[in-house]
Design a protein that fits this description.
Residues 146-169, 473-496 are annotated as: Disordered. This protein is α+β, with helices and mostly antiparallel strands. It is built from 28 helices and 22 strands. β21 and β22 (693-696) form a beta hairpin.
């Protein structure tokens, strides 16, 4: 209190905030000059600025009549820079260094704490500064003098040599083509010093006009340093409560937070994990654990978690292998990443890891050399795949790390069946990419396996199958008699329902159900964790139960029609793959799960207006029979129907055709000259280009 009494308040000054020059006011700091010379006395010849970089160049005249000016030194500098001849490009036209260039640099990166103040009539007017620039002499004229010197030396050396010697002086050059730039390389290039310098050099200079201190324009602009309105509405920033003012003077200390991951990665904090959405929790757990039984996953998610929601989420980030959930490859290897060992892209890694997972759906054992031979990946990548889901056994190979989860398979047969469909789609892709042989598709028998189905012998399996057949026979017979009685009571209904109960007379192979399960050669009937005896009930004699035929036909027709309207041309193999993926997306218990045969699918294709195209494939082709059957939509109802039909006729006589042949044939058959866009549209609908030739979709044989 005593100190405050000794230091009384002498005067109170009103403070105003001027906004007229906001984001336009710069403070220039010039080099120190003699006190007798002010910068107002210096003649400014020119000024220019780069606004984005806040870079300024000023050109000022030098007083050559000043006694402190060394005239001989000025003449020498001008001679070194411009030489003996003077023209428009000369830096010093008077043959004397009579001007000097100043270049700016930022004095402070954060100027929000600085302002220009003007005191007038008991009022203090503040204008925030937009930048503080320090002006320093620029010596670019010395670089120009060095360039002139090098040119003179080169000219002298060139004059000594004869024309013949110049012609004989031939140097070999090497032409190199740059590789496609990756995203990481592009980011490094953008952040490099050379790139930043180039970007700064590309910005154009904006020339400015200099006005002296006593100029009328300067006086006019100086008025903007005063607040235009003294009302409270114009200066709300300066009206603060005591607590707010104290907070502005002494802001709370902000602790620098380290970069924390958005979600736990290496070490999981269960408290933090459970604050995330359920889908994110499952994704993080599967990404870290890699392989997990469903029961363990439920225990980690905590009590009260809905198992149905967990099943729905886990299928988005994991696949079912031997009743256990294994994280998907694209979760571990996101797009635009690469292998830390070999540098191969994520797409190739995902295919290789999917092959390893698929092998474990067939058998509990996988041989590392076999995987490396098929995928053509480096040993480190293959070992990384295997360590995710298996354990190495000496002299045996790699065994799947978890036992077969029979409890989950029994409780959730619909999930298991859907996963089978997904694996069939993955298998079709792998067969096409890796050209898998029968040796790879057939699981190898191991002498010792720890899977649960090993307990059941072959004789026991036969007895169990016979018992189940006898158990179901009575039920089937009763159902047959009931339908037969209904048919007798209603003649009209009989005509519709008789095909549903007629005993099939054609050979079994003629209407064999379409392959919608993983290979039957699995050990002990193990199909991706599902025993074949526990699968869904097959149709009776290859026909659907009464009342379901119409619904199944409608669903199948809708799928075939929509698929061909998108693709136009499909092989039977590709159509079956798309159908299996369609089945995997359907809810459990859908009518299409009752069983669709290959013959039924092909008949439906022909019924929807499609035709089979007999493509003359090369002899001794290694393609499967399904890949040799090509179907095309004959009439889509648009203006390109005739063009597509002519194109399909061409491919019924040729396996591959050049574009000019196709275009001339289309023009000849359609009687009009087609432009490039129309031909491209027809080719895009039905064909693919490979090696300069055009093929029907799906008929390119590797």
């Amino acid at each position: 209190m005593a100190n405050e009494e000794d230091d009384p308040i002498i005067q109170e000054i009103d403070v105003f905030l001027a906004r007229s020059l906001l984001e336009k006011l710069y403070l220039f700091q010039y080099p120190i000059r003699p006190a007798s010379m002010t910068y107002d006395d210096v003649t400014h010849l020119s000024a220019k600025i780069k606004p984005k970089q806040q870079k300024v160049e000023l050109e000022m005249a030098i007083d050559t009549l000043n006694p402190n000016y060394c005239r001989s030194k000025g003449e020498q500098i001008a001679l070194n820079v411009d030489g003996t001849c003077t023209d428009e490009t000369s830096t010093y036209s008077s043959k004397l260094m009579d001007k000097q260039t100043f270049c700016s640099s930022q004095a402070a990166s954060n100027v929000s704490r600085y302002a220009a103040a003007v005191y007038k009539k008991g009022e203090l007017h503040l204008t925030p500064l937009h930048g503080i620039l320090q002006l320093r002499p620029s010596f670019t004229y010395l670089d120009k003098a060095d360039a002139k010197h090098r040119e003179r030396e080169a000219a002298n050396e060139g004059g000594d040599s004869s024309q013949d010697e110049a012609e004989d002086d031939v140097k070999q050059i090497t032409v190199r083509f740059s590789r496609p730039e990756t995203e990481q390389a592009r980011q490094r290039r953008v952040q490099s010093y050379e790139f930043l310098q180039k970007r700064q050099a590309e910005e154009h200079w904006v020339h400015l006009h200099y006005y002296g201190l006593k100029d009328s324009r300067s006086e006019h602009e100086r008025q903007y340093l005063f607040s235009q309105g003294h009302g409270l509405a114009e200066n709300t920033e300066l009206i603060k409560s005591p607590s707010e003012y104290l907070m502005m003077l002494m802001p709370p200390s902000v602790e620098e937070e380290n970069d924390k991951p958005m979600a736990p990665s290496n070490v999981l904090s269960m408290a933090q994990l459970r604050t995330l959405p359920l889908a994110d929790q499952i994704k993080i757990l599967m990404k870290n654990v890699k392989v997990m039984p469903f029961a363990n996953l439920m225990s980690l998610l905590g009590s009260g978690t809905d198992s149905t929601a967990v099943l729905r989420c886990v299928q988005q980030v994991a696949l079912l292998v031997q009743g256990n959930w294994v994280v998907k490859s694209d979760v571990l290897y996101p797009k635009d990443t690469s292998s830390p060992y070999s540098g191969v892209p994520a797409e190739v890694l995902c295919r290789g890891r999917d092959f390893v997972m698929w092998k474990f759906t067939q058998d509990r054992w996988v041989v590392r050399k076999e995987v490396a031979a098929v995928t053509k990946l480096c040993p480190e990548d293959v070992k990384d795949f295997l360590e995710h889901m298996s354990v190495a056994r000496i002299n045996k190979g790699w065994e799947f790390m978890l036992p077969y989860d029979e409890d989950f398979v029994k409780k959730h047969p619909d999930i298991v069946q859907r996963q089978q469909m997904l694996w069939m789609g993955i298998q079709a892709k792998l067969e096409k990419v890796y050209n898998l042989l029968k040796d790879h598709l057939t699981p190898k028998k191991q002498e010792t396996q720890s899977a649960h189905p090993l307990v059941v012998s072959g004789e026991q399996r036969v007895n169990m199958a016979k018992a189940k057949v006898q158990q179901n026979y009575g039920q089937l017979e009763k159902e047959h008699q009931r339908q037969k009685a209904e048919l007798k009571s209603n003649d009209t209904a009989a005509k519709t329902d008789v095909p549903s109960i007629r005993i099939k007379e054609e050979p079994v192979g003629a209407e064999e159900p379409m392959d919608t399960s993983v290979f039957e050669g699995l050990n002990n009937g193990l199909v991706n964790g599902l025993h074949s005896t526990e699968g869904p009930t097959d149709p009776v004699n290859g026909h659907l139960p009464g009342g379901c035929l119409d619904r199944v036909a409608q669903e199948l027709k809708a799928f075939v029609s929509s698929t061909f309207r998108k693709q136009f041309v499909l092989t039977l193999s590709e159509l079956k793959r798309l159908f299996n993926l369609h089945l995997a997306s359907l809810p459990p218990g859908h009518t299409l799960f009752s069983g669709i045969s290959d013959k039924m699918l092909q008949d439906m294709v022909l019924d929807t207006g499609c035709r089979q195209i007999l493509v003359p494939f090369p002899p001794q082709t290694a393609a499967s029979p399904d890949e040799l059957k090509v179907y095309a939509l004959w009439e889509a109802g648009d203006i390109y129907d005739q063009h597509r039909q002519v194109l399909l006729e061409i491919f019924s006589r040729n396996y591959r055709v050049r574009r000019n042949v196709i275009q001339s044939q289309l023009s000849q058959e359609c009687g009009e000259d087609l432009n490039k866009q129309e031909v491209d549209r027809v080719l895009k609908d039905c064909c693919v280009s490979y090696g300069g030739m055009w093929y029907l979709k799906g008929t390119v044989l590797s």
